[in-house]
Structures are given as structure tokens and as C-alpha cells.
């Protein structure tokens, strides 16, 4: 796990890392022999995390499940956080209207891990689960906004691998930090909030499935 950038929002704009650092981050994502987490800190949560937990302060975490391998990895991580009695976790699964655009194999895998998670955690009063049906990227963003910018201390999301394209339709052109994925980039932007911390998870990429290093690095360096 590593930090992509820390925001300094007092002047209304984030303090983004140098383009060279973004390139290094991208290389880590591309070549890491394991799953990778990128932590984007914009709140005091990261500065006093140990202290707040030691004093028994409750923290609200939310995990956005948009399907695919990275979302499954993010859900597995979110599930582990529930082991801390001071954490309350909400998992929101996004589904495309009439399952338009989804991959049947990916959906079957998604159904399995989500069902397993909920069977395990349903008895807990610190874990909540719900589903949201959308038909475009705009509706996805609207649903996220409706959840409340300041309602959670940490947002957990998968990077992008295997996500239903309908859930992201129309959002790709607005992405500024491709190493965070579409949703992670939006959550970490100043447009979403100045105090929201975001954790983006990417499942290990097998060597044969790794993309060529081209457009993403060039985008990061511009």
C-alpha cells in the first residue's frame, strides 16, 4: 500500500504529486507481484488514526462495489476492517439496469463473494449492505453524491478491472489520475469533498494480462 498524493485543500485545490511520482505509481501498479492499495488522504483520519482507534472513536467506512476483480479485492479488504470493533462498514453494490453490459462470468464471481460477505456479516449491527441500480455513469455519480460527502471517514473502491462499462459510461473523459481508476479519481478530487480519504485497491495482475505501458503514463506526465 502506498500514498498517491495528499491534498492541501485550504486554497481550494489539491496538492498533487509531481508527474514523475505518478509515473512511478503507475509502474508499481503494473508490475507489483501482489495486490496494491493506493491511499489518498485528505482528512485528519490518516494523521491520528492510531490515536482515534485507541480512544474508541467510531469510524464510518464505506465500500463501493462496482464489480470485477478489483472490486472483489476491495471487498475482501473492507471485510477485514470489520475486525476492528470501532469500525462501522457500509457496502454499496452498483448494478446496471437489466444487467446491461455486464460479463456473466464476472457477475457470477461477484455474486459469490458478495453473498459470502453478507452471510458472514449480516448478524453484525456494524455492517450494512444495499444495492443501487443505475443505467449510466452519471447515475452512478449521482448515487455516490446522494450518500453524502461527509458521511464517511474512508471510501474504499476497486480500481477498474472487470467493472461493468455501463456503470462508468461517460466518465472516462473526466479522469485526471488514471492510477486511481474512474471512481477513485472522482472520490479523491476536490469536486467530491475536501476531507474525504479514499483507498483504491487493485488485485494482482497476472503477467500475461498486463497492459502495455503507453497512454496512462503519458497522461500522468502531462
What does this molecule look like?
The protein is of the alpha/beta class and 222 residues long. The protein starts with a strand and ends with a helix. It has a seven-stranded mixed beta sheet, with helices on both faces. α1 packs antiparallel against α8 and α3 packs parallel to α4. It has eight helices and seven strands, in the order βαβαβαβαβαβααβα. The longest helix has 18 residues. α4 links the parallel β4 and β5.
Largest sheet: 7 strands, mixed
* Cα Rg: 17 Å
User: What low-confidence regions span 5 or more consecutive residues with pLDDT below 50?
Assistant: 6-17, 210-222
Strand/helix succession: EHEHEHEHEHEHHEH
Helix content: 25-40%
Question: How many alpha or pi helices?
Answer: 8
Strand runs, count: 7
Mean pLDDT: 79
CA-to-CA gap between the ends? 25 Å
Largest sheet, spatial ordering of strands? 1-2-7-6-3-4-5
Short description:
The chain is of the alpha/beta class and 222 residues long. 36% of the residues lie in helices and 21% in strands.
Topology record:
Elements: E1 2-6, H1 19-31, E2 36-41, H2 49-54, E3 59-65, H3 69-81, E4 87-96, H4 104-121, E5 127-134, H5 137-146, E6 154-158, H6 165-168, H7 181-188, E7 197-202, H8 215-221
List keywords for this structure.
single chain, 222 residues, alpha/beta, seven-stranded mixed beta sheet, 8 helices, 7 strands, globular
Amino acid at each position: 500500500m502506498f500514498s498517491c498524493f495528499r491534498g492541501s485543500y485550504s486554497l481550494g485545490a489539491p496538492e498533487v504529486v509531481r508527474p514523475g511520482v505518478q509515473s512511478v505509481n503507475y509502474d508499481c501498479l503494473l508490475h507489483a507481484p501482489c495486490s496494491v492499495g493506493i491511499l489518498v488522504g485528505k482528512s485528519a483520519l490518516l494523521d491520528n488514526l492510531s490515536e482515534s482507534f485507541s480512544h474508541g472513536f467510531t469510524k464510518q467506512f464505506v465500500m463501493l462495489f462496482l464489480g470485477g476483480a478489483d472490486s472483489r479485492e476491495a471487498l475482501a479488504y473492507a471485510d477485514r476492517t470489520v475486525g476492528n470493533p470501532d469500525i462501522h462498514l457500509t457496502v454499496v453494490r452498483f448494478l446496471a439496469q437489466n444487467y446491461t453490459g455486464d460479463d456473466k462470468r464476472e457477475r457470477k464471481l461477484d455474486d459469490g463473494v458478495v453473498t459470502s460477505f453478507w452471510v458472514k456479516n449480516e448478524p453484525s449491527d456494524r455492517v450494512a449492505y444495499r444495492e443501487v441500480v443505475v443505467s449510466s455513469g452519471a447515475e452512478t455519480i449521482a448515487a455516490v453524491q446522494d450518500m453524502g460527502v461527509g458521511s464517511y471517514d474512508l471510501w474504499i473502491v476497486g480500481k477498474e478491472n472487470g467493472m461493468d462499462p455501463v456503470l462508468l459510461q461517460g466518465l472516462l473523459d473526466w479522469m485526471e489520475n488514471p492510477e486511481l481508476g474512474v471512481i477513485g479519481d472522482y472520490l479523491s478530487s476536490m469536486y467530491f469533498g475536501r476531507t474525504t480519504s479514499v483507498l483504491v485497491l487493485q488485485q494482482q495482475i497476472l503477467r500475461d494480462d498486463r497492459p502495455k505501458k503507453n497512454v496512462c503514463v503519458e497522461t500522468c506526465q502531462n
